[in-house]
Design brief:
4 copies of one chain form a homotetramer.
Chain A lengths: L1 E6 L2 H20 L4 H9 L5 H13 L10 E10 H7 L6 E5 L16 H4 L3 H23 L4 H4 L8 E9 H11 L6 H17 L1 H4 L6 H4 L18 H17 L8
Helix pairs in contact in A: 1-2, 1-3
């Protein structure tokens, strides 16, 4: 599995991406025209740290439109069709083009081996591998016998690898990362978003810092399946809100005002 | 494969759906309030044929927002994962929930047989069926050996059947039908949209009449792959525009004005 | 200002809307076909309370696609263009058709008076009303002098009232209500969503219960402008997370394990 | 009115934008990984003219996802609120941030004068200008008297100028241009898209060539309001399809096969 940031490169990100978001934010609150705001930001007439601080506040408050103005394009290769079927469910702020099993007549189809099968009983693993290889072999024979590619591929397993080009704006990328970096996400798609986060960090540690499981910005985990608190990243919503409720109750009992701030 | 219109039923469609679109259209051009327009339309104070005529004109002009106000929910079952992977690529005006191969531990997984394989050489078909059955058997054994369902399913073929609930507004449904009823669409998804069209016709022949390959409203086919004109539904764009150009040239040569209307 | 639920009526909501969401949820986790799940739910073979409980859990976990299958259509009338310009910024899961100031030649344009101007110094209020009336009069004179409606309306104030038809799925409605019922939203759009919530409650107290300022499901307020805690609906995120941090620190100091659940 | 392309600059467009679309197209039909396709395209190992030809064909066939991978960000300033209210109705593939009349307390609000009023009877024009100036003066006085900005702006006319940052992918830009460059679009928004097209031409004549009224790629006009053929850009759909029908009828009468290609 591979995820490569195709566009933009580090130089473009460093020169333009923070100024673009800053311009979108400032345009809402200023009588200045956007091209003048942008010119100043790019020229460094507005301090870079000040630009970042504004952006940080806007993202933390969930005012998301301002971070729809910058996009990242990834080449994604060698992921299973199981992963791609999940990935393309994302709709807002994201574009996909995927290798077509209908049009490509594969000469070298390859497959993904899950870790649980890699580590399984050798006999079980052998059966799995034979089954998968049998599928790929039969696919070739079906093509050879004149069956159209779009029908021959019915024999391909979910494990079959595929490639995609994915473009996403920052808002969608933060949203997807929030879901897919969660320890409860499927292992393969979680790994993909770890690679994607790594690519973003390479071109901008500041922007990369916003790619995290959703519990990190929320301050708590809201997954039903984590009511037992087995994931250590953040405590569950229930216990966090209970801690506050307890503190407020104690304050009230002592005749003190609620510590709202 | 099955497509069942879950909502709305024929009674609801007949009472409310044309009036809803009519209200959206009229609100744009009227000083009347929408609830009054709607009341009149539902009460039959505006002639039904007049309502339909307005809607027809609006749809033919491509002014699509007015037909986003009515939705249809389908239960779709027994389609291959090959179909579902294509289907969920639609993003605007459509919602999907799909049977999860991650969470469902299948006891009775079944598969789809393409017609080309059904009609293939018996030996080839036998090999295909054995391969598919082998996959389903191995899936059961993997589950039995404690492999998680989300990994065991890597062995499932594309042919594996799945179920979805799909809700789509009329605009998205016309758009999807335009692409998927085209003779160049994949046979399985084309069959699905034939079933869907049948369901819509059952509750409203008027609304069903807008579900057609995109060449029908366009008046020509714009598919590159049909430059040879093998699909008989409509002539290719190139020849239609050429016919006009020829007629205009003749008119000019004869000193006549261009017949623009 | 008026917001009227045009579709569906109470009978339709009671018969179909909870079963539709339930079917979407169950389809993901079941080998049963969606039309069978739906049939059972509508027939009451699945307990209504059980259906609601599943839906409640799914909404609270933020798994939103399942609540995109049901929609509500509102007639909205008498709101200012200030409100409508904000409202139509919502994009996902929502459709609008609005009275066109380009095509409608107003005979009876009317305007909205903000409470701060209603309660203002009488002289100031008089000037405001004269200015507004002057605009409407001039509009009429411009039309009379042959200026096209699309240009005459340049003189219309933001206060001018407009009508819309809005259709929204439940996910978008919860999202919009979360933002627009917040005490920091603009007063007019907040009032609109109070009317909308009232309409939903009329047809389903269960579904209406999910329409609340976003702080209610979150358990805390995340608005930068409420760091002083002036809005009493929920405490600010900062103090809630601090209460938890304090409790965890005390536990650690006492050698106790973190109370993660 | 001003529209300035903020991002990307000509150098970035020339180095990366055609290769990005090319990579999206090729990934669908190739076993090569997207990063390798992109590397070859950027390095010039694939002929630029060949890349453009593929892109041209894909756009002409309406296969739009491939052109969602490149975006353009514009600073737009000095447009009326009438224009902005229309512009932000676009939803797919586009992001907006707009100067807030709620948060900005204008010191120098300015307005747009339609040409029909500029050229109107001097007395009428004088009344219009007085009315508009009266609105801006009163706004200042309302602010001075302590009325909140969000209420004072109710007196602002539609003519009031505003600024936006707009980011759009190429697919959405072609779609919007198709509607807004049409001679039946409102004059102000049409002018805006002429400026936008000019900006795109400056960085890429190839990409700019796709920005045209929708009748240009269609080959005919499908606007109901142009059934009289008053707009000369393209003949109406009715006459184009009639020319083909006539030619086909003649062919049939002469016993010749239909000239489908």
């Amino acid at each position: 599995m591979k995820a490569t940031l195709l566009f933009p490169d580090k130089d473009i990100v460093e020169r333009f991406y923070v100024p673009l978001i800053y311009t979108a934010c400032r345009t809402c609150y200023s009588e200045l025209e956007p091209d003048e705001i942008f010119r100043r930001a790019v020229a460094g007439e507005v301090d870079g740290a000040k630009q970042q601080k504004l952006i940080q506040g806007v993202i933390e408050s969930g005012h998301g439109s301002t971070i729809e103005h910058i996009v990242f394009t990834f080449g994604i290769s060698g992921v299973s069709r199981t992963l791609s079927h999940q990935l393309v469910r994302h709709r807002a702020g994201v574009a996909f083009d995927q290798q077509s099993q209908r049009y490509v007549k594969y000469k070298g189809a390859s497959t993904m081996l899950p870790a649980t099968l890699e580590d399984a009983d050798p006999e079980l693993r052998r059966r799995y591998e034979e089954q998968i290889e049998g599928s790929l072999d039969l696919y070739g024979d079906l093509l050879g016998a004149g069956i159209p590619g779009e029908d021959a591929r019915f024999v391909f397993p979910n494990a079959t690898r595929t490639n995609l080009v994915m473009t996403t704006n920052l808002r969608a990328l933060i949203h997807m990362s929030g879901l897919r970096l969660c320890t409860m996400a499927q292992w393969e798609i979680r790994r993909l978003f770890q690679l994607i986060r790594h690519e973003i960090f390479n071109v901008s540690p500041f922007l990369g810092s916003f790619l995290a499981p959703k519990c990190v910005p929320l301050g708590y985990c809201d997954e039903m399946n984590n009511r037992d608190g087995h994931c250590p990243i953040r405590p569950h919503k229930d216990v966090v809100l209970a801690a506050w409720a307890e503190k407020a109750k104690t304050a009230r009992a002592a005749g003190r005002e609620l510590p709202v701030t």
